[in-house]
Amino acid sequence: MIVNCRGLRTSRQGSGILPIVALLMLSMATGCSQSNRNQGKTSEQSPQAQEAASTPRLQPGKTKVVTTFLPIYLFTKAVAGNVADVEILVRPGTEVHEYQATPENVKAIATANVLVKNGLGLEVFLENTVKNAQNSKLTEIDASKGIKPLNEISPVVKTTQEEKDHEHTQGNPHVWLDPVLAKQQVTNIRNGLIAADPANKATYQVNAAAYIKELESLNSEFHQTLQKTPSCTFITFHDAFPYLAKRYNLKQVAVVQIPEDQLSPTDVQNAVNAVKKYKVKALFSEPGVDNKLLVSLSKDLKLTLRPLDSLETGETDPQHYFQAMKANLQTLQTACK
Ligand SMILES: [Zn+2]
Fold it and tell me: CA 191 to CA 172: how far, in whole Å?
């Protein structure tokens, strides 16, 4: 079924009985259906950028770093600059939550010096992929090392079907959407790269410092802007924003599940009740998602549907993080007014 880790995929089971609102439903690491992986979502990335990300020109002697998915690629690329080759395993436009590795991924890991992952149970595919790559010299960097994950589950507007097996054991993995935690990820990546490639220590330090400075100013901008709309309450379709919400005193109260075919009147009523109960101000979808049910639900809820970017897909320039996050800030500012 359907909550979505990533935009609005529909269910493997294709059941017609569908719950509508489940608060902070445990969808993450294991909660996404494998079917329809890219449904409703288009990559906004240029072919050139994709090529640059996936097939870097290897230079002899350079440290080869493979990263798992977009935010980790952006942070690693920012720190590595031109002194290491950085690749991405999960190409933008591909779902990370239930990703299945390709033979190319195994090959990439087999020949890499360093592997950088988000951690917190997000990259389920890695375990077997790394094993299959049989690279005894591989250094792994867990970008979330030292970050305490959020596990709390808000009270749930009960759904008709609960999928217990969708609980994520290591907490919510979407830490990169909080600029302060992103700073810690960049620091972890910097330290890992220095340990693996001490010859380029100075470059890693300078590059990381510059990126961290930008993250700090992004954090100030978020604080200054969002303190004008305290406790703004919102609903999403992807449980991606609890860290962002916690940092800036917003409230992600619900994650809505969208069925494949149609919403029953009871489903709609449940959602309407939740909006009233939590005085919900904002309803967020994701960029590139086009779903008639969402549009119709937003009308029933009398809420404007706006895109909030989880950054799981997008451009591969390290500056993309700041562009997308600033766009998110603008969306939040407008929606929370
Ligand atoms: Zn996600």
Answer: 24
Question: 216 CA to middle of ligand 1, Å?
Answer: 23
Compute the CA torsion angle 4, 90, 321, 33 (nearest 10 deg): 0
Question: For 68-109, what is each residue's pLDDT tens digit?
Answer: 999 999 999 999 999 999 999 999 999 999 899 999 999 999
pLDDT band at 60 (very low <50, low <70, confident <90, very high): low
Spacing, Cα 233 to ligand 1 middle (Å):
19
How many angstroms separate the alpha carbon of residue 61 from the centre of ligand 1? 35
Q: Which tokens belong to 321?
A: 């993080």
Q: Where are the domains of the chain?
A: 21-30+221-336, 47-143+150-165+172-218
Domain 21-30+221-336 and domain 47-143+150-165+172-218, same fold? Reply is yes
Q: How far is the CA of 243 from the centre of ligand 1 (A)?
A: 12
**How far away, in angstroms, is 59 Cα from ligand 1 center?**
33
Total-model pTM: 0.81
Which top CATH class is 47-143+150-165+172-218?
Answer: alpha beta
Distance 272 CA to ligand 1 centre (A): 25
Residue 52 Cα to ligand 1 middle (Å): 24
Query: Could you read off the pLDDT of 134-146 as tens digits, one per residue?
Result: 999 999 999 999 9
Domain 21-30+221-336 has CATH 3.40.50.300: no
Q: Cα separations (Å) of 22 from 35, 178, 332?
A: 21, 23, 22
Sign of CA dihedral 33, 37, 39, 42: positive
- Using the mean position of ligand 1's atoms as its centre, give its distance from the Cα of residue 138 in Å: 27
